[in-house]
Amino acid sequence: MNNEEVVRKATDAGVLLVTFLYCDNGGVIRGKSSHIYGLANRIDSGIGLTVAMQAMSDNDDLQPIDGMGPKGEIRLVPDPNTFTLLPYAPKRAVMMADMHTLDRKPWAACPRDFLKKQIDRAGEMGLNIQAAFEPEWSLARRDGDGFAPIDESLCFSGVGMTESMAVIDDIVVALDAQGLQVEQYYPELGHGQQELTIGHADALRAADNHIVYRETVRNIARQHDLYASFAPKPFPDQSGNGCHIHISLWDEQAERNLFYDSDGRHGLSQMGYQFIGGVLAHLRGLVALTAPSVNSYRRLIPNSWSSAFVCYGPDNREAAVRIPSGYWGNEMASANLELKPSDSSANPYLALGGLISAGLDGITNNTIPSLDLEIDVDPTTLPDGEMKRRGIVNLPRSLDEAVRALEEDVTLMESLGPTLSEAYLAIRRADAKLFSENDQSFEIRRHFNKF
Fold this sequence. Notes:
Blueprint: H1 3-12, E1 17-23, E2 29-35, H2 39-45, E3 47-50, E4 56-57, E5 61-62, E6 73-78, E7 84-85, E8 92-100, H3 111-124, E9 128-143, E10 146-149, H4 158-177, E11 182-187, E12 193-198, E13 201-202, H5 203-223, E14 227-229, E15 243-250, H6 270-290, H7 296-299, E16 312-314, E17 321-323, H8 331-334, E18 337-339, H9 348-364, H10 386-390, H11 399-408, H12 410-416, H13 418-436, H14 440-448
Parallel strand pairs: 1-8, 16-17
Antiparallel strand pairs: 1-2, 3-6, 4-5, 6-8, 7-8, 9-10, 9-12, 9-13, 9-14, 9-15, 11-12, 15-18, 17-18
């Protein structure tokens, strides 16, 4: 879609405000809006944004990062191909935005550009990346100063479907109107917990779709006087909310899934195992991008089906990388890998970009994972000493530990680049410090409405 088509479509639909959306280093969706009368110019020139916004930690505390203070400005430049009318807000529309310097070049601290670079790197290797985010979220009502789940139903139960039917149906209609194809829905294990998945797409579109998805769910819930929280652990006594990332690599024409091999172990090709090897090699640092909040580490614990160890396995939901079984009659197209230690407190461009970087490193270096790391049980059920013998190590147990692992990971740090990595590490350290100085109720309250 070109600029003129965007303006015409917005005008014909009676749109008054078009928001240029981006996701910051803290995983918060932010944006600035243009009135329809100035939209044509704003699409080309962008909207001004202070460079400080990529240095904001929790509570909008500006971190002391060189070049990201009160002086300096970038532009939020929208991608016309992402123009979306909002069915839940008829006078509004959105576009995903890139961050450009004043000389019209991508800003080194732009998360969306980071993902684009990893996609380009894959393209140079003749690879087309398909991905999907699989989010869980909690539906709640106000309860005094806090929140309470909308029900106490059981996993996949009809009671749970009944309790959330009205809001879920409106969400499905709204997602469909925005071109996001819903695949499955069910109430999950936690009280008030929901899982509603949409179809895969090329990598950039998949990350864009997750932004649209989060905004849609949150807004439709509010129209029903409810609250949707994508926080990893909004209720400490309930199951956590993951956002698993599914990924597959295809040939340049997107006709052949290069992860599939009918004769391979678990139907997976050598390239698929190389990708797993790269992910596992970098996983302890990668989770600082995919599970990047203090609240994330209340979820990443043993025996919670969220994965707490560096291992992989076929249809093993306690493994960090799951090899899903293919669908009957569609084995080639459905072959993919699922990263489980991931949640919606992550910036999807950074999370997916980091995953691609790690996996491509595995392909480049032929990093085949050890069979000792392949596991088909809960790792905690192994005999004493067996995990150590097999080299199965814990994921980081805290954000601090994950940030240190990321900083020590040369491959991921080089992929992020000095500008983005410095800002990202600074705000994550600041978040870790803030929450270490406060209690659990402060943490839950701060995270509930942030994501």
